[in-house]
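QA checklist item 7 of 12: single-chain prediction sanity check.
[x] sequence parsed
[x] length recorded as 249
[x] structure emitted
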Amino acid sequence: MNYTELDTKLQGRNKESRKEAENTYLKRRGEDIALLYHETDVATFKPNGDIILNSGGWHTLTTKERINWALAGTGKRLLQERGVWYIDREYYVGRGEYNGEKLVPIRFQDGITIHADGSITGGLTETPNREKADKILKAKVKKFAQRCADSVPIDKPGMGDCWYCSMKSEDGKTWGDMGDNSHLDSHIKENYVVPSLVYNALKECYNANMAFWQAFKDTGWTSDDREFGKMAVKKAVYRYIMKRKGYAI
C-alpha cells in the first residue's frame, strides 16, 4: 500500500470511504488516508509517503495482519516475539545484522512512523535492560492477578471503586482506556483488588456472564464454582493489564 495507490482507489462514489475487508475500510481524513479496522485507524497514510501505525491498544492477530497490509511494499514488517511487537524483526533474528549493517531492534508502540525514506521514528529501541524490565513487569502482574484470584468471592463493583476503572463513556470505554491507564500501576503497587477492574477483565476476556457470577459475592454459586471463578479471574486480570501495557496476549 502507498498513498498514491489508495488515493486512486478512493474515487467516484467511493471518494470518502471504501470497504477493503471485514470490518476494514479505507477512509479519507482530510488530506490523509486511513486504514480503519473496527474503530481504530491502524495506519494513516500521509501525502509525503509517511505511514503512522496505531494498534488502538488491541494487539491481536487481525490487528497485526492489517498493519502488515499497510507495510506491504515498504520493506518493513510487524512481527511478534514473546508477546512483544517489533518492526523489521526478521532482519536481525539470529544474525544481528542485515547486509553488513548492525541492526538494533525497534519495538512497536502506537504512533510509530515509517517514513518515505525507510527510516523509523516513534518506536522503542530494544535493549537488554528492557528485556529484564519485561520479566519484572510480567512477574508483578502475575502476582497481582493471583491476588485478585485469591480474593474470590469479591465484593461487587460499586461507587467506591477506582473511577478510572468504573466510570465509562457512552460507548463503554473506561476512563482509563480513554486517557491514562497509569492507575493500574497504583493498584498493582498497593496490591489492591478493584472489583470494577476484575469485572472489566472478565467481560473482555470471556464476553459472558458466567465468570462474572462465579467471581463475586452473593450470587449463589457453590465452592466448586468459585474455584472456576478464581481461575477465570487470574487469567482475565493478567491478560487485561498486559494488553494495556502494550503486549500481545
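[x] summary fact logged: The longest helix spans residues 128-150.
[ ] second reviewer sign-off
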